[in-house]
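Quick one:
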Amino acid sequence: MAPKKKRNEMKHSNIICLRLSDIELELVNHAASQAKLSRSDYLRNLILDHKMAIHYEVVIDSQTIKMLLAEYGKIGSNLNQIAKYFNTGGAYSKSVTNEIQQCLYDLYRLKKELLKMIGDYRGNSETY
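Output:
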């Protein structure tokens, strides 16, 4: 008896080879039988019908970024010292106000520089 011809479906003439361990193959076979599909149909549906999340990891080894991170650390240390000063009953003064304003200015400047660099890496020159 000749095999049944599929009607109204695409002819699947291309083959993709995939190596699986015995356990992986058993898991695929089990999932296909639970879905009441052939193994080929199950894998085809799994590959084509589901959106895959693609994650990119950008690694930049730049001396400028290392310098900026070091500056962020110093600013954070300064802010911690200011917080400790106030938490231990320190009085509000003009010099403390100036130190806080300097830290905020430094943070703003570093943020702007980082965003500029990110814009450069993205290949555009957007302003932030």
